[in-house]
Amino acid sequence: MAKELNAEIEAKHGALLDWLEHHIFDTPRCPDVLERQPDVTVADAYRLRAALVERRIAKGDRLLGYKVAGSSRSLRADEHIEGQITGCLMASNFYEDGATVPAGGYSRLAMEGEITVLMKHALRGPNVGLTDVLRAAAGAYASIELIASNRSGSSLQTRIIDGKFSGAYVLGRKLVALDGIDLRLEGMVAYRNGAAMGSATGIEVMSNPLNAVAFVANNLAEVGLQLEPGMLVMTGSLLANLPGAPGERYTMDFTRLGSVSATLG
Hints:
The protein is an alpha+beta fold. It has a single domain, classed as Fumarylacetoacetate hydrolase, domain 2 (Alpha-Beta Complex), CATH 3.90.850. It has helices spanning 2-25, 33-36, 42-58, 73-79, 130-136, 156-161, 209-221, and strands at residues 63-69, 85-90, 94-96, 100-101, 108-119, 137-149, 168-171, 187-192, 195-201, 232-237, 242-243, 249-254, 259-264.
């Protein structure tokens, strides 16, 4: 189903995909897709993004999983956004714990501390719930997301299409099984250059970070996709974004998941 849908999107929106690919990957700023084509719906945006992912894979990148944006109550309040959207995680944006992450040339830099879930089994919506996620998950990592953007478009459709083709994510070194762990109570302290900047618990993320995984599975089902074994799901920032700047080191210290660090280069 996914292949047929992607072929349909390429046939129907090939010129728009060419335009999006050029502006997202080859130019300093990504304008709003609605300026180019005002009738693009939210459903269209997810299909267009899936087609762009396939184009990146054809050029040698890999899809490692998905992320949720707007899952934290504090982040939604801070950035005045409503609801959650699903973004993609590409291998070209992956860095190991402790890495220096290139961060030059962006108009906006921010750091997020997140819980990332590794899938052991496939998970396909609709109607995926918390119990389904627990059965399908292998465990969780501490993680950091670098929000790095030059996007000039602000519509929901543009945010979906451009979701996580820029920036970076960093995983901790320890995969922790979920048996006996209540991620709602998993605590995190965020540090910048060794100074504590704030703290939060997992309940800030959709009342339970595993609900974010269910959201992704159900959202993907709408475009004929599913979470595959070995995929990662970044469940969203526990705290409001920390402003980022080159040369600064960020550490997210979790109660049971361990710590993860990155320096902006």
